[in-house]
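thread: overnight batch results

M.L. [08:02]
morning all. the overnight job finished for the chain we discussed friday. pasting input first so we're all looking at the same thing
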Amino acid sequence: MNYKEVIPFEDYQSGSMFFLKLGTDKAKTLGGDYILDGIKFSMSILSKVSNLEVQGLKKVHINGTDIENVPLEFESINISKKSEEYNYIRFGKKNDLTTTEQRIADQDTDIQFLFGYTDYKKALDIFENVPNFYLYFPLTEEKHGLKFILHTNAFYKKSARTSLHSDDINIRLLEVFSEKLLENLHKDSTKFIKIYPLLLSTKKTVDNDKLWINQPLILPILKYVSANIPVMSDNEQGYEVVTEKEIVRLKKTKVDVYLNSSEAPYRWFYFNDYTDLENSIQENINIKHFNLYHLLIQKDIDSKINEWLDNSEERIKIFIHELLLLVSISQNERNTIKETLFKIKFLRFSNKEVLSINEFQEKENQGYFYQFKEFNGAESILINLGFHITVDNIEYVIDALRNNFSNKSQLKDYVAIADIFSGKVLDEQLDQLSNSDKNTLLLAFEGFHRKSEKDVLSYVKLYKNYIGKYENIKT
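M.L. [08:03]
and the structure it wrote out:
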């Protein structure tokens, strides 16, 4: 038997085999990836269109390549040939058909639309760079970056076999299809929430030859997604639809202080975590972000945040991570959040205490230190001497807020660090320090000395004078 080398006969128990003699160079055309990709969807369409109570076409073998159909869901829309919508599509009018037009309608079949789709996450790959329009088989030049496919038995191709033209029938087909699809979504909440992100990712075409599809198809879709916005809800289905985008926000904070949707100052966009949708959300709806800064400017929010933090290491780290993302905000914005931020208990200390910045500034003189990088290597020495040091590094935040701290605080004046150390450490404790430990502490204070405009070292008590008494370092 011929062609054994290209056909895996052992994989097939039954089926049909066709050998087609092609014209010059036609084999090259049929071998293109865009043809093979399109056929995967055609197989799904043909299985759906057949309406048979048997398994549809699952797999074909073309030119040495196995092709399996794409598992899609379909929204089927039927336009009866006796309806006004049919008349409008075919003849551009709803009533008063001529005798010839009526005869054409009588001999015609109903118009069928098949909207093929899948879960949005899968759609990102499945619909990447594939034809979007089908007349049973792919119209290979109709690639519009849509996350769905559309088949209809009524597309008008004229002489072209791979593309559509801006024919009046095609324009009206897309117009009626978009109208019917959006009507159906309004009636079915399950399909709405599954299809919405696919529609949201739609973009207007910029191809001069294809601009005609924008008006009947793309613009109605974009208008719909911007006027019907799904937001999180405490109801049974987990979402509801609102029409005012001004009350909707993209929630960009994991500091979840609101127990339910009704407590939040805004409605949270339902597809909040779909990062692949970010650009489409901004382009097609333009929903504003709600991050930690926006949370901190809410009235009396500090108690809610502290209740949520609840001294939890994991949650404190979440808060600090988001706080670090705010270092680039303006000075006016820093001033706006200062009062609230300074009440948040997120400073973890080596003695297991968790303090707010306000509490920390009040307790500094009792031997509390922020973990400045200058203390690297000296932490265990200070802890053994009875000092308490912060666990988490938020130096970028400290630097950004330096002008907002108390003038007497170590967070603003490095002299305070030396003062706190020298005022609390006992001579007996210094006696027990090794020369190595003292040198380590000296290196730390020299680091503060270099960063300060003041003589920090002159406030440090670390070594004995010639008569054996501890005194501040003379510089």
